[in-house]
Amino acid sequence: MTKVDGQTVIKKYANRRLYNTGTSTYVTLDDLAVMVKDGDDFVVIDAKSGEDITHSVLTQIIFEQESKTGNTLLPVSFLRQLITYYGDQMQMLVPSYLEHSMSAFGAQQEQMREQITKAFGETPITRNMQAPMQMVEEQVRRNTEMFQQAMQMFSPFAKTAGNTPASGTKSKSGNQDIQDLKDQLRSLQEKLDSLGD
């Protein structure tokens, strides 16, 4: 069996080796990361039990990418917030919200690339990153507002006078997230500039 409903089957054996049944070769987590980036659809099956372990393998890929590159996509504040939802009544809403947000962000990537190309020409590596940073900040702000509105709809009594956070707390956290994003983009621009030299 090489494909299930259009998905390539990857078998994981007890010795932790991964076998791509589509190409009849052993693969690594890095190979699977490349497959994801290329848009290849696959499912990872435990060879002994037949259990679908795709979720845990993809999580492992993210962990390795985060630790090996030093450039993290998941800020500590996001990870902390995500952990608080485990076991919470809102836990069932988080996956669909994150999936929707990432789909929307992915759809807007192409639009952002077109805008950057129009604004800065074909070589954005040597150009100012201010406009792309503003576009990303705006998207983050809209997603955050949408998530907060959704949370308020499902827990209208959560904000009472006694447990409302101070008005500056939310904006400080939001400003810090935006500043972190700016710093990451600035660092990326510096790396790109050094490549252009």
TrEMBL record:
Where is there biased composition of kind Polar residues? 161-178
Q: Which residue range or ranges hold the PHB accumulation regulatory domain?
A: 74-113
GO annotation (BP), single: regulation of DNA-templated transcription
Organism domain of life: Bacteria
Record-linked Pfam families: PHB_acc, PHB_acc_N
Per UniProt, residues of the PHA accumulation regulator DNA-binding N-terminal domain are 9-68
Q: Which InterPro entries match?
A: PHA_DNA-bd_N, PHA_reg_PhaR, PHB_accumulat
Location of the region described as Disordered in the Swiss-Prot/TrEMBL record: 158-181
Q: What is this protein called?
A: Polyhydroxyalkanoate synthesis repressor PhaR
Name its species.
Flavimaribacter sediminis
Question: What is the organism lineage in this UniProt record?
Answer: Bacteria, Pseudomonadati, Pseudomonadota, Alphaproteobacteria, Hyphomicrobiales
What gene name is given for the protein in this entry? phaR
